[in-house]
Design a protein that fits this description.
Distance between the termini: 95 Å
Number of strands: 10
Shape: elongated
Largest sheet: 5 strands, parallel
Radius of gyration: 34 Å
Number of helices: 30
Length: about 625
């Protein structure tokens, strides 16, 4: 094993690494990005800051260029965020010209200004199709770095991403476009890039997952700097990776600290971390890394509280499944956490020491109330009750209140009114779900009809009367509607459907069947679920509609005429016809004297399941008549 120091080797803390830098760690992302781009697939590398995205871009471009592929670069951060829409598009144009060495053959300013009568995206489109794809015969890859810069623009760049999508779609009609590929890199998610949520989201391309260094990956590049400086470079590097979680920036920094600050050939890594990274971390944080994480977290004042609360729960050891929510994504993009085996956890022990529970508590106290925006809207609307806090938002507000030094009069009043509203909401919920006068299922069904149609005609049913008594609905000019807008928000369709499912696991199918005028047989349950439904309903008093649904469901599932039918019965012909109609045609049910004769004939006779159900449904039908 080589233990001699590597001459000229130096760890690089921060910044973009050149293509041949000896400290560059090759990861799975290198192989994935190279293969995808070489195959002509659009790609995006979207991750937190200082994860090595730009270094990955440099290295990948160098490999592709060595194989004859032309690579261009657009660095969106170079133009700053205080630019106009025209400057944004012309900047992209000049970047492509410069990186692809077109400046000697094209006067960029003249070419761009001559096309004053068309939009900026049309100019780009014309340049791509009539110049770039005509002049360059090789495959072309355009890297767009620091893509998150567009999020700070005062204008929308939705048309730019629509332009990239259009280039991709043109591959079907123009084979030249199959030689053009884009790669986006930055701190964002694809959904962040399009401001107008009504437009087609930017969802083309292959996502490249950029993870931290694994020891087996890192040792090929990073162990050389430790040789001759420590006794067991492999063991020391493993300890470094354990502390950094393989985060590229902090890994290079800790390796550099080992070389510069060690006091023996067997350095104590924990001591180095504590002394030169954790202790007085803001002083030692040069170049900035930990401050970058913190500032990213605090950039959105409206979300910072909920992000801190989520991070606090993780620090407490709560196992939180990664669910793709905006809070989970934002916390991951800040760099604080990673997704590990379907759960979110703190990226590494260093972050856990710096951004500890004490730091979270102090940050929460300094943060704006999590309900600032809601409070403003409440005041601006003239204290509209629908702007008050409910559910989890109110719980977060109460937690913040416990940490806050002092509440303003308006904040106190807002929270007080929110609590009064929540007490009323909780009472309504209890009165519905624990109702003894009506089956809660049918109360919710009635309420859902009103919610979906905004208002319905009154029918004086017991469910209507009970909902009025609970004050969830009111009568207005012979129409029924929800009492308050806030009730529509709290007791919305999702809430109703969830509660209906708890009461009847087959509620979705049953309600769809009812809404089809009891004709949609595709809503019937399969054998297993039907068996569960029958067990669930055993001993309960069901409405005729539900009895009919379950009975017809049983008949439908039999799928054939029972061989034990009494073929000589006075109702055989009608039973056959009824079955042939998939148990839908009520004209074949027995009525009046015909039913009475059938019941007399069946006395003391053994009947099949189908015959029993046919006679029961006939009786129910006659009662309805």
């Amino acid at each position: 094993m080589n233990t001699e120091p590597t001459l000229g080797y130096k760890y690089q803390v921060g910044g973009c690494l050149c293509a041949h830098d000896p400290t560059y760690v090759v990861r799975q992302a290198d192989r994935n990005l190279y293969e995808e781009l070489k195959s002509g697939n659009y790609c995006y590398v979207l991750n937190s800051r200082q994860m090595g995205k730009s270094s990955l871009r440099v290295r990948t471009a160098q490999r592709l260029q060595a194989e004859g592929i032309v690579c261009g670069l657009v660095d969106l951060s170079a133009g700053g965020s205080q630019i106009t829409q025209e400057e944004f598009y012309s900047g992209i144009f000049y970047n492509i010209l410069r990186s692809l060495q077109f400046l000697d053959s094209i006067n960029g300013r003249t070419w761009w200004n001559e096309r004053w009568d068309i939009s900026s995206t049309e100019k780009l489109g014309e340049f791509i199709e009539d110049v770039l794809l005509k002049e360059v015969s090789q495959n072309i890859i355009i890297f767009i770095d620091e893509i998150d810069t567009v999020l700070s623009f005062k204008f929308s760049v939705d048309d730019f991403f629509a332009f990239i999508r259009a280039c991709y779609n043109k591959r079907a009609d123009n084979s030249d476009y199959q030689r053009l590929t884009f790669c986006l890199l930055g701190v964002a998610t694809p959904s962040d890039l399009m401001r107008d949520k009504k437009r087609t989201p930017f969802n083309i391309g292959k996502a490249i997952d950029l993870t931290g260094f694994q020891f087996e990956e890192a040792k090929e590049a990073l162990i050389d700097g430790l040789r001759g400086k420590v006794d067991e470079p492999g063991s020391i590097l493993q300890q470094v990776i354990k502390w950094t979680g393989g985060q590229p920036f902090i890994t290079q920094k800790l390796c550099d600290l080992v070389v510069r600050k060690k006091e023996s050939r067997s350095p104590n890594i924990e001591q180095l971390v504590e002394e030169y990274i954790v202790k007085n971390w803001e002083y030692h944080d040069e170049p900035a890394h930990l401050r970058t994480l913190r500032d990213r977290l605090f950039r959105n004042e409206e979300k910072v509280f909920s992000l801190l609360r989520l991070y606090q729960r993780i620090l407490f050891g709560e196992k939180i499944d990664s669910n793709g929510s905006s809070e989970h994504i934002e916390l991951r993009l800040s760099g604080f956490v990673i997704n590990s085996n379907g759960r979110i956890k703190v990226y590494n022990p260093i972050y856990e020491k710096v951004f500890n529970l004490q730091w979270v508590e102090e940050s929460i106290q300094k943060s704006l109330p999590p309900f600032s925006k809601d409070l403003f809207e409440w005041l601006y609307s003239g204290r509209d009750e629908s702007k008050l806090l409910t559910g989890q938002k109110l719980q977060d507000a109460e937690y913040w209140k416990e940490k806050a030094q002092k509440l303003s009069e308006e904040q106190w009043k807002y929270l007080s009114n929110s609590h009064q509203l929540n007490e009323k909401i909780e009472q309504i919920s209890y009165d519905i779900l624990n109702n003894t006068n009506c089956d809660p299922f049918w109360l919710l069904f009635k309420y859902k009809q009103i919610l979906q149609l905004k208002e319905i005609n009154q029918d004086s049913s017991k469910e209507e009367l009970e909902l009025k008594k609970i004050t969830l609905i009111i009568e207005d000019q012979n129409k029924l509607r929800v009492t308050k807008k806030i009730y529509q928000s709290v007791f919305d369709i999702n809430w109703v459907d969830n509660e209906l499912f708890k009461l009847r696991f087959y509620s979705k199918e049953f309600i769809a069947w009812l809404e089809s005028d009891c004709k949609d047989n595709s809503q019937f349950l399969d054998d297993n679920r039907l068996h569960m439904a029958l067990n669930h309903s055993r001993g309960k008093t069901l409405k005729d509609e539900e009895n009919r649904f379950l009975i017809l469901n049983q008949l439908f599932n039999l799928g054939k005429i029972d061989q034990q039918l009494n073929i000589s019965s006075p109702y055989t012909s009608k039973l056959y016809s009824w079955l042939e109609s998939h148990c839908q045609d009520e004209s074949f049910l027995l009525q009046g004297r015909e039913l009475q004769e059938a019941l007399e004939w069946t006395q003391n006779k053994k009947l099949s399941v189908i015959e029993n159900q046919f006679l029961i449904i006939s009786q129910l039908f006659n009662q309805g008549e």
